[in-house]
Amino acid sequence: MTGPDFLPHAARWSAGNARTDLGGLPGGSSSVANGVNDAGHVAGSADRSGGGYAYPVRWSAAGAVQDLGAPLTNRLGQGLAIDPAGRVAGGQRPADSEGDPLGILYGTDGTPTALGPDAGLARGINGRGQVVGGPGPYVWSAGTRTTLPGLPGGGGGSAYGINDNGLIVRC
């Protein structure tokens, strides 16, 4: 659906093609799902007020939504990927809400771990807890962030995914 009256709503489909509407945050009107793990937990974004800006969220397998951006207001962001344990890779803008989102790993309890003062948005996570992101492509593991080498032809780019063997995709 598209059009002026359409607001996106996160949904999850089962292997049997059953659709579950995941809803959003209380008071909000839109949500987006970006990643799902084998347990059925979903990472994404949702607004807190109708037509408002998005914050990172995680849905449980039962469909309960958790606001990972709370309690901060005006610190917009998103959840982009989720690992088998339920940790979410994503990020939020700085506290003054100026500038690009900074990379954050949200623990299973929702506790945020900043991936560095200049780490771009966290875009992927594997089952070993390694996180990748950008711009300024990097891999973060156990508190250490390593910048990835440049690509032929130049350009910084971003890393978008990492598997459990440590293979990374980026552009």
Report the count of strand segments.
16
The DSSP helix count reads 0
Give the domain tally. Answer: 1
**What is the alpha-carbon Rg in Å?**
16 Å
Q: What would you call the shape?
A: globular
Write a concise synopsis of the structure shown.
The protein is an all-beta fold and 171 residues long. 0% of the residues lie in helices and 42% in strands. It has one domain (10-170).
Could you explain the architecture of this structure?
The protein is mainly β and 171 residues long. It has one domain (10-170). The chain has strands at residues 10-13, 19-23, 31-36, 42-47, 54-59, 65-67, 77-82, 88-92, 102-106, 112-114, 122-125, 131-133, 138-141, 144-147, 159-162, 168-170. Strands 3-4-5-6 form a four-stranded antiparallel β-sheet, with no helix packed on it. It has a four-stranded antiparallel β-sheet with strand order 7-8-9-10, with no helix packed on it.
Write the layout of secondary structure elements.
Layout: E1 10-13, E2 19-23, E3 31-36, E4 42-47, E5 54-59, E6 65-67, E7 77-82, E8 88-92, E9 102-106, E10 112-114, E11 122-125, E12 131-133, E13 138-141, E14 144-147, E15 159-162, E16 168-170
Antiparallel strand pairs: 1-2, 3-4, 4-5, 5-6, 7-8, 8-9, 9-10, 11-12, 12-13, 13-14, 15-16
